[in-house]
Amino acid sequence: MNNIETKCVQLFSKIMGVPAKSIGDHSSPDTIEEWDSLLHVELIANLEKTFSIQISPEEGIELEDFKSIVSIVENKLH
């Protein structure tokens, strides 16, 4: 797990209130009961702050699972 992914896991775990060990590439609103629209917006805001990036509304909609979250952060940072 690289540094970006590790930070995403920590952030995701904190916001969603789930154990870090339960988070995987396919973690999504379908697999994490706590993941609702309000937490989704909070997650985006915290990703932007933590990584000093901007996520457009269109990109925010594409964040359908944990793997897509890590991917967009990595793409924005490189």
Describe what this molecule looks like in 3D.
There is one protein chain. The chain has helices spanning 3-16, 37-51, 57-62, 66-77. By secondary structure, it is mainly α. The chain has a single domain, classed as Non-ribosomal Peptide Synthetase Peptidyl Carrier Protein, Chain A, CATH 1.10.1200.10. It has four helices and no strands. Helix 1 packs antiparallel against helix 2 and helix 1 (3-16) crosses helix 4 (66-77). Helices cover 60% and strands 0% of the residues.
Descriptive tags:
Non-ribosomal Peptide Synthetase Peptidyl Carrier Protein, Chain A; 4 helices; mainly alpha; globular; 78 residues
Helix vs. strand class: mainly alpha
Count the domains: 1
User: What is the CATH architecture descriptor?
Assistant: Orthogonal Bundle
The SSE string, one letter per element, is: HHHH
Biggest β-sheet strands, sense, barrel: none
What's the number of extended β-strand segments?
0
- Report the principal-axis shape: globular
Would you tell me which CATH topology applies? Answer: Non-ribosomal Peptide Synthetase Peptidyl Carrier Protein, Chain A
How big is the Rg?
A: 11 Å
Strand content: under 5%
Helical fraction? 55-70%
Number of helices: 4
The mean pLDDT is 94
The first-level CATH class is given as Mainly Alpha
For the terminal residues, how far apart are their CA atoms? 17 Å
- CATH evolutionary superfamily: ACP-like
Low-confidence runs = none
